[in-house]
Amino acid sequence: MLLTPREEIESRIARFQQELAESELDGAIIVLNSDMFYLAGTVQNAQLFVPTQGEPVLMIRKSLRRGQEESPLKNVVPMKGTKEMPGILQSFGHTSLGRIGLEFDVLPVNNYMAYQRNFPNTTFVDVTPLIKKIRMIKSPFEIEQIRTAMRIVDAGFSEIPKVLREGMREIDLASYFEAAMRRAGLAGNTKMRAFNQDYFLGNVCFGSSCAMASYMDGSVSGSGLTPAWPQGAGNKTLERNEVVFVDYVGVANGYCGDQTRVFCIGQLPPKMEQAFSDALMINEEMLKILKPGTPAEEPYLLAVKIAEELGYKEHFLGYKENRVRFVGHGVGLETDEMPVFAPGMKTPVMPGMVFALEPKFVFAEGAIGTESTYVMTEAGPECLSITPQIIGYVDYTKRPL
What we know:
By secondary structure, the chain is an alpha+beta fold.
């Protein structure tokens, strides 16, 4: 089992503490699993206190043993409940707690009220922007995890030509794909930070089911198997000459890599092939303008301009009224990280940022396009995806029995 190196955690803590100091905070209490893993190297039922100066304290309800084994932090201690937190922190010398940061975007109201009761003389401040800021820039260690995630998702895509056949259901192909990723080392589920935005591992859609929208903030949702989970693979069966749209996330040591590719048995209509070619062209045009310092909104604005000039206004990034307003997003421990390539986003795309670009078109008869994951370098974007960006035409009649 790969553990996060001590020097990684120490570097992250130091950068976070610098942000806390600049915001005139005395420290922060971290509870979200992805943030805790980033700063402590473990995911437990716990509370992580990061002081502006000094050593963090990881207070664990369950499992203390795993937390002590997995985290390189010096102070990993047991805690029965949040009422014990003030005393535990005082025992480590943390007595000045006038302004403390919390993850306001994800913290339940009941938990917030408990902090108010337990720390009556403390003012609580939203620390989420600081966490997102330091997590945007990935270290070489993190980028290597994402490279591994891309190899895992490639294993799933490599399985498709071996198993795709007419008459199979979307859920059948999804099961083959996900099994291939598990065999390749898929380590866990996909995390999203946004409220009520669920995402399991990915999405398999055949033809018209690509146009079925849902609450999910994405270009393509799929029907799913039930209204309780209205996205992803459903029971639609594959017909000849229709698009097979596959969008999946690989996960390695908590880190995500996002990718979309398309396949077909038979021959796609010229309209769909042209749309695929146009999606690749838009992707290349976005990459051309992406340099260190480029505001994140610029690739989006360029992509929308080109798509509209080509006559795809009602189909780019979704179908008609269900179109989304982003053409890319950061990836890391979550699939909806910064930067977001959307209108109004002035965040400069800097070296070390990892992101997915996903120019896609959605029609009544199917969706087509591409999505790959990139890391920004001093020389520009480097593609981390290894699966070819082509329409994967499959002739299953020639497969060995």
